[in-house]
Amino acid sequence: MDKYLSIDIGGTFIKYNVMDAQGQILETSDIPTAIDTDTFKEQLVGVVEKHKKEVVGIGICIAGFIDPQSGTNTDFSVRPSFRAFNIKEELHRISGLPVMLENDSNCALIGEMEAGAGKRYSDVLLLTIGTGIGGALAIDKKLYRGSHFKAGEANFMRMYGREPEATAGLVRKVSEALHKQVDGYYIFEHLEDDRIREIYEDWLKRLAVAVGNVAVFFDPEAVLIGGGICEQKHFIEDLKKEVYDRFCHLEEYTQIKACEKGNQAGRIGAYVLLKQMLRKGV
């Protein structure tokens, strides 16, 4: 039975699965992501060395502008260790196995289309709301990466007036208004506080304009919203209301849904893309 190693490299944790040909997770684990390059590389090599004899390939997702063919990452805003060496080439060298490397938002979108909120759709836009606003786009069930592997990078959007902000911006503004450090959970537990409600509603309106604009431009069947904020059940309903109030025609044909696979989406997507690469014999 073929097995596959799927690794999600994040700023906080390196999470990985061993999966079978049917997509079942046989083993899952995580380790805190080291900051310095040498230790980070040792961590990845350690995971691969542990499993290389039992798997037929390695799928990896990571933040950045990733060329999946060469394995280069040209995003200089990511952690330096993430681009200090060619992860695809290095892990292939030490394992002898095929390695698939892809942007984390792209993998999350494929994971949701394979096993989550995007299963019913062919044209899907994913927006992840977290430290920044990331994104990915699939057309006819195929990733659209763009000429420079930057398609879906919603952080680059600019609008007349104030720009949309990710969850980190909301948390920062509420913390400043209350003169104490809070987190997203605190905000949603205290929306009855007029100071918090006003900041939240202003943040939500600007986010809704961004979501509506990209939905109008790309005309997907569905917009999937990811990030930890989706754990707050009424956030998606609040966002949908704001988007459809401003772009009323979208309500007829564009679904806005929360992602369903959580932090497994990237690993599932990396697994799917790895299997596709192996089928093509790349």
Topology diagram in text:
Layout: E1 3-9, E2 13-20, E3 25-32, H1 37-51, E4 58-62, H2 80-83, H3 87-95, E5 99-103, H4 104-115, E6 124-129, E7 133-139, E8 142-143, H5 167-178, H6 184-189, H7 194-218, E9 222-226, H8 233-246, H9 250-253, E10 255-258, H10 265-280
Helix pairs in contact: 1-3, 4-10, 5-7, 7-8
Please give a handful of descriptors for the protein shown:
282 residues, alpha/beta
Structure description:
With 282 residues, the chain is of the alpha/beta class. It has helices at residues 37-51, 80-83, 87-95, 104-115, 167-178, 184-189, 194-218, 233-246, 250-253, 265-280; strands at 3-9, 13-20, 25-32, 58-62, 99-103, 124-129, 133-139, 142-143, 222-226, 255-258. α1 crosses α3 and α4 crosses α10.
Question: Quick recap of the structure?
Answer:
This protein has 282 residues and is α/β, with parallel strands linked by helices.
Percent strand: 15-25%
Main pleated-sheet profile: 5 strands, mixed
How much is the radius of gyration in Å? 19 Å
Oligomer: single chain
Low-confidence stretches: none
- The side-by-side strand order for the widest beta sheet comes to 3-2-1-4-5
